[in-house]
Amino acid sequence: MKLEKSKKVHYDSGPNMTPMVDIVMVILIFFMLGASFVGVEHFLRTNLPAIGKGGEGPRDTGVVPDEPLEIIVDSPISGDRWLAKAGAISVADRTSLANQLRQLRTAMNSSGITDDRIQVVINPGKNVKYKYLVEVYQAALQAEFSKIAFSTAH
Amino acid sequence: MRRHQMPDMKEGNVNVTPLIDIVMCLIIFFMLVARIGVDTGADASIRIPSSVMGIDIKDLGNTVTLNISETAAHKDEPEVSLLHPKTGQKVTVGITDTAPSGELVRPLEDLLTAWRKNLGPECKVIIRADQDLNYRLLEPVLITCAKAKVKDVNFATRRGEAVVAQQ
User: Fold this and answer.
1) A48 to chain B, minimum CA–CA distance in Å?
2) CB of A78 less than 8 A from some CB of B
3) Does A134 fall in a domain?
């Protein structure tokens, strides 16, 4: 019986690529799953608390002090809600607080106080939860204040 | 002049050379993007608050992550765990402590001051605290950062919708 295959000449005598492709594909999938293009976390940059009342240490001569805008944040003992007060403003949700703070900023700007001179100071109560402070902080950011800091608890 | 060209297909097999070229490029890309096995010192068990106004920090090189948690031992002070980004030294300290001599010491402030000097002026601090942590426990950490003269302080938040307070 004549066997056709046994007589066939193999010209393609290079290395067998199949195992390599298998391994390379596994490595590729591993790195694809391990890679994180966009992190799950992002950050709120803050200034540090103003320690003491009226500022500490000598002021530089010739430097105009910032105009403070204090936001007092309170929370009941149960800690399930918050209330922010800044002058005549008294609100308990971020969107309203942001809108009213924006109006306040516009009013301050029209009275000659520029944005870089307004220092927002968030003054929380001792029992205010961190997540509510983040809300107030975001409201100040939404109102386009650039200098935001926390003060010591009241 | 002899020109290089693709080898002729003798038996009708699929030419895998371009496939391997592309796959190798993808592997190198994902190796560079992936941060596998890099410990930032972040405690995954802490439920950080969510925010919509956060920013990304591109360079997390000289960053010290402070994981703030409540402890049963010191109800008025938090416990802070942190990791040195270069040496990998992991420590858990309180705000204040009593030395064997009876003197009051501030371990977190001393540690942050030393690490800031070691890491240079670009040193950043990321604060990771539980979303339900009271400000009375967060405040001493912020004051300590100010005393240690850390200039760049950031709050870690989750991407997502903000918290809706119960009315």
Assistant:
1) 6
2) no
3) yes
pTM of the model: 0.73
Please determine, for residue A42, whether its predicted confidence score (pLDDT) is greater than 70: yes
Q: Residue A111 sits in a domain of what CATH number? A: 3.30.420.270
Contact A130 B152 (CB under 8 A): no
B58–chain A Cβ distance below 8 A for any pair: no
3-state secondary structure labels for all residues of chain B: CCCCCCCCCCCCCCCCHHHHHHHHHHHHHHHHHCCCCCCCCCCCCCCCCEECCCECCCCCCCEEEEEEECCCCCCCCCEEEEECCCCCCEEEEECCEECCCCCEECHHHHHHHHHHHHHCCCCEEEEEECCCCEHHHHHHHHHHHHHCCCCEEEEEEEECCCCCCCC
How many domains, chain A? 1
B10: closest CA of chain A, how far (Å): 6
Does residue A40 sit at the B interface (CB-CB below 8 Å)?
yes
Q: Is residue A123 part of a domain?
A: yes
The ipTM assigned to this model is: 0.73
CB A28 within 8 A of CB B20: no
Angle between helices B135-147 and B107-119 (to 10 degrees): 50
Mean of all residue pLDDT scores within chain B: 80
Domain of residue A115 covers 69-150
